Amino acid sequence: xxxxxxxxxxxxxxxxxxxxxxxxxxxxxxxxxxxxxxxxxxxxxxxxxxxxxxxxxxxxxxxxxxxxxxxxxx
Amino acid sequence: xxxxxxxxxxxxxxxxxxxxxxxxxxxxxxxxxxxxxxxxxxxxxxxxxxxxxxxxxxxxxxxxxxxxxxxxxxxxxxxxxxxxxxxxxxxxxxxxxxxxxxxxxxxxxxxxxxxxxxxxxxxxxxxxxxxxxxxxxxxxxxxxxxxxxxxxxxxxxxxxxxxxxxxxxxxxxxxxxxxxxxxxxxxxxxxxxx
Lengths: 74, 194
What we know:
heterodimer, A: 74 residues, B: mainly alpha, 0% strand
């Protein structure tokens, strides 16, 4: 019957789309996490440079005393 | 009426599906009664108090009298779909939920053949559709399939299962969707009355 054939073709097409979508989404998510993790250190450094506030612990950097060569901006 | 389908056949199937739908809803609400109390959601089993079990059995019997194949296959399917998520939980029978589902499905296929398949597909479609709608409300629930599979995957699977039901038994597909909406409407009324 034509109706049954159309139904089965529709089911097959949606199943193929679902398969591609499900795999694509999962692979894309993993790629996105890897990409984000590689960009994160740079972004943290940028935030620290722009605001002088540590993005992890929200502490103001000591900019007056020359007690820490790494965190001293002067 | 639908082509090749008599009015009596359609009505018999419709009422059988609607009545067994209520029985399944009472069973589902019995299992979820603690969660519904916490969430303050309407629960048919709590509303019926001690009458829940007798009414569920009465409704199942009535549905079986009207159309035994549709009613019993739908009830077995709802049991199988409900238990399939419990992979690691041992049931009172001593078996894991997953094994109980497989046994019930095999039994249903032996007894009802394609009727069981259509019932299984429509139950899966309704479960997925329900989880898709509930995604925003209980997106932290481990049992929500939309959360486990993804929202779009859940919707697409629901469509696939619905189309498969239409392929096997389109009368059951139509009547089940109508019955589902009637049951949801009545539950909503019950919630508004409280």
